């Protein structure tokens, strides 16, 4: 216990004892070592949004050449879709990492049972997993931005802020995903995850502006977390900043904090009792 | 020396049907949780891409004068079938060998490995047809169909799916690790196939250098078949050609999978 006490900081004094031991980075280290074995799958995560961009450049962009941008003025369709694709891939990456992987570690590999037998707490587990999801999402975001910039889809220096924005999206969705996955009992229930993700991907103004929907439906779409992520990205990519983006930011931050709180509680409940 | 069997030997088809019956028993209890992959997913794509994205597309030469919704409706059925087929023949088949081991259990009875694989194929065909029928029915309310060719589109979807099921099952039967390669298949084969097989836009828009990739994909042939029977625009000989490619893929997959099932289950 001496090493834990030596590192005791403010967090340790605030949190209930045993929840946090300041060793979240050990989980990140483990994840890096694991992903070295499946590096091809790791790299493929960067390829996927690129394929989407290619499809939109070659195909969809010829069907629809211009759409109404964030300020109502028309913009090229590919440039309209690109930021939304980054938001979606940040979401997907985070959710897959924190649901499927977490489920297997939690239920089958009993990885966390083993970890909690060492001086590591549930908050370390939650933070470590989210930290890894962030690292991964950050790498993909940088790769995507480089490709989008090379295709001439970014028109503002604000676009550089899309990397931290992608990290925030990743943290929010992995925290929420982690909290939800602790309720799943069998792999057959993974369909439920898809049942939430796909409609969000399809309807949260990824492919067409919000104005397409009738008024009441617009309000439903405004409740989707991915919608706020996309709004944030689109504003940054075009450099058309607005006050509404602060609301988008706040929405994601609050959701992320809620997710972190809930996932720590759930993991503690599942593993420590 | 003649051996006398005390068990009841099942007929060639009956063994496979017993498998189907087993799956059906499972499905009756779990159909709600699989509703998403059975029919709901392509319906969601139809709503988002056909109605939402389609609202931005003007009917023109690309869509054959039809609305975008009507243009992609048959193709989405084929794409949904291909995805469902790959999904059902990857982890579930590996699980039959490795995790749940129901294939091992079944072949401990007089049912042969070939019958186990046959059962999987029949069950896949039934599920694909059911999913196609559900999708076709819902799409009816979107106004997605232009004529009575719908019933044939369902069949085209099943054929497309089976052309993906057999090769994928062959791959799954030869997979011995935790199935990491399935992730790569989804990313590098299924996803690009869905995007670049003429589902959302004609492959004539692709540069000639990568157009041949679309010709290789079973989904492009399935898409052409589905469009041909529902909205026309595909010649009779071309249709036969597409059907032949799909049948060829199915046959090749069958031979490989059949062999792999025997090799893995007969110890």
UniProtKB/TrEMBL annotation, chain A:
Lineage summary: Bacteria, Bacillati, Actinomycetota, Actinomycetes, Pseudonocardiales
Gene Ontology terms: cellular component: ATP-binding cassette (ABC) transporter complex
Keyword annotations: Antibiotic resistance, Cell membrane, Membrane, Transmembrane, Transmembrane helix, Transport
GO biological process, one term: response to antibiotic
Protein name: Transport permease protein
Localization terms from the record: Cell membrane; Membrane
Highest taxon above the source species: Bacteria
Short name of one Pfam family: ABC2_membrane
GO molecular function terms noted in the UniProt entry: ABC-type transporter activity
PROSITE patterns, alphabetized: ABC_TM2
Topological type in the membrane: Multi-pass membrane protein
Membrane-traversing stretches: 33-55, 75-96, 139-159, 165-185, 192-210, 240-262
Similarity section: Belongs to the ABC-2 integral membrane protein family.
Organism of this sequence: Amycolatopsis mediterranei (strain S699) (Nocardia mediterranei)
UniProt cross-references to InterPro entries, sorted A to Z: ABC2_TM (IPR013525), ABC2_TM_bact-type (IPR047817), ABC_2_transport (IPR000412), Nod_factor_ABC_transporter (IPR051784)
Domain ABC transmembrane type-2: 40-270
From TrEMBL, chain B:
Cross-referenced Pfam families: ABC2_membrane (PF01061)
Cellular component GO terms, alphabetical: ATP-binding cassette (ABC) transporter complex
Keywords: Antibiotic resistance, Cell membrane, Membrane, Transmembrane, Transmembrane helix, Transport
Gene Ontology process terms (BP): response to antibiotic
Membrane topology note: Multi-pass membrane protein
GO molecular function: ABC-type transporter activity
Transmembrane segments: 125-145, 151-172, 184-214, 234-257
Family matches, as InterPro entries: ABC2_TM, ABC2_TM_bact-type, ABC_2_transport, Nod_factor_ABC_transporter
Residues annotated as domain ABC transmembrane type-2: 33-264
Localization per record: Cell membrane; Membrane
PANTHER family in the record: NODULATION PROTEIN J (PTHR43229:SF2)
Stated family: Belongs to the ABC-2 integral membrane protein family.
Protein name as it appears in the record: Transport permease protein
